[in-house]
Amino acid sequence: MSWLSDDAVARLRDVGSEPDLSATPYGFVGALGRGGMGAVFLVEDSRLGRRVAMKVLDLPDRSGALEARLVREARVLAQLEHPGIVPVHDVGSLADGRVFYTMKYVEGRRLDEWAGSAASLAERLRLFEKICEPVAFAHSRGVLHRDLKPANVMVGPFGEVLVMDWGVAKIVGGAVTESVPAPAASAAPVIPASDSKSSAATGDTAHGSVLGTPGFMAPEQERGEVGQLDSRADIYSLGAILKFLAAPASGGKIPRRLAAIIGKAMSEEPQSRYSSAQALAYDVAGYLDGLPVSAYPEGIFERAVRVASRNRVAVVLVLAYLLMRILLIFWRPR
Amino acid sequence: MADGDSNIGGGGGGRFPATRWSAVLAARSADAAERSRGLDQLISAYWKPVYKYIRMRWNKPREDAQDLTQDFFARVIEKGFFDRYDPGKARLRTFVRVCVDGMVANEAKAAGRLKRGGDAVHISLDFDSAETELVRAGASFVTQDKPATREIASPDSMEEFFEKEWVRSLFSVAVETLRGECERRGKQIHFRLFEIYDLEDSGDGRTSYEHLARDFGIAVTDVTNHLSYVRREFRRIALEKLREMCASEDEFRREARAIFGIEPA
């Protein structure tokens, strides 16, 4: 019998987790990453000659719950057409029984990796504004992400931002529905029928279930109060991402007005948070532009300092003019 | 197989069980043939990890380890060993390892193990190959006649060792089955490519598809397709072999996740 070295065993483990792409137009290129439900691979679509990312369930799922969740994720994504949300191309099942969907391959860095760069606070906050846009769009379509965190945000080579991994998204109404026809799969289609009563299909989770990531999860989400969740749970997560981005660029001390924005987004009580992702982004933009922010009621002196710092050139010109006048008054030739 | 020699460790064999067939359940069957078939499968996958474990964990000389391994599997065959296994409580390999520990510890407590009689069950196991593997794995202290000279390793690291050897054994069985399948289907080149690219250690990095294509006089796309085929078959066979080693679907899924590096959902 063959002797298998440790390296060979490790390679065979990798081989074992590769998707069976026979009877599909895709060719295997490499592994990209792994999530809770399955793995993401880089594959080449031979029909179009382009590389796409393929998300595949780990194993054929006999209960159907995970399959339903993956297909549901693909459907939700397909209906959220936004430049900040990765577009889905295809959905189906492989010869080995595993369900997959393909999506645009984003050649970029995860936000948690990007955050280690030397980007300034202003650059980080501009990027954060871009994260708020697709989230606000999803909310307007009645979809909660429920697992917003730096690892689920990709920063593309042109500075574009894509919000990824909508596997635990929850549909709370609005334009996105489950009752869309099953798209034609490139391999044997095994799309589970949409079932509004199925928790996996609707994204409904039993009360007490906790889906999300500690540190970025709203307190009510952490407590498993699934029925109470609304867009303000995502606002909390956005606040945690903002804090994550701002802290390293602030030398450990986040400016007061920005800290107030983070504090409001991450309020313990949902009703104390921003009412929308746009409102949060608006405050961040206001902070960057030296405008008042809703999270921080300022006094007259603070306001004067802010206005002065925002209009530095004008203030300098006025001061210079006044100084000249004074000099002229006192040094006028007699 | 219970009496006399039975060449279990020698190779893959061509049996191809039905998808849901479980060697564990078969080993509990009242049907003698089914029971024997199930035990064959289980012993094929477990004897090397058990032997190596006894050598390493219990620091036993080669001959003692061979006797203990024979003892253990004789008990497996004679005493309905797998009847006591509850997949709800532990994984099969944990159960096997704990039972081996119990047996060896009891043997150590006794004044000395009685030599096995002539009518005892004897299983033909290729202990030389297991010894060679131990040496190749870096256990250079393992010699023909002397026990390993190092201290007995801590139970935790030995648990990892047993699991690692079990996976190696499972993959070896799957690779041998795959080799047989490829030969029967006239796909020797496919298997050879797999062997060179995925199984062999070249020492100076993996060879390229272009290099393989040149060596075999085929197109690079053929190398890609052939490797893709054999890997797919390996995956299928490895999962089937794994399923055989599990008593329940749930256990199979957990094991597959563990072995292929997949975190439980």
Overall morphology of chain A: elongated
* Beta content of chain B: under 5%
Greatest contact between two chains: A-B, 32 and 43 residues
End-to-end distance of chain A: 113 Å
**H-E string of chain B:** HHHHHHHHHH
Please give the number of β-strands of chain B.
Answer: 0
Q: How much strand content do the residues of chain A show?
A: 5-15%
Average pLDDT taken over every residue of chain A = 82
Oligomer: heterodimer
Structural features, described:
- The complex is a heterodimer of chains A (334) and B (265).
- Chain A is an alpha+beta fold.
- Chain A folds into three domains: 93 residues, Phosphorylase Kinase, domain 1; 180 residues, Transferase(Phosphotransferase), domain 1; 32 residues.
- Helix content of chain A is 39%, strand content 15%.
- In chain A, strands 1-2-3-5-4 form a five-stranded antiparallel beta sheet, covered by helices on one side.
- Chain B is an all-alpha fold and 265 residues long.
- Chain B has one domain.
- In chain B, helix 2 crosses helix 4, helix 6 crosses helix 9 and helix 7 packs across helix 9.
- The longest helix of chain B is centred in the middle third of the chain and has 30 residues.
- Chain B is globular and about 65 Å long.
- The N terminus of chain B is likely disordered.
- Classes of the chains: A alpha+beta (334), B mainly alpha (265).
- Chains A and B meet through helix 1 and strand 1 of A and helix 5, helix 6, helix 9 and helix 10 of B.
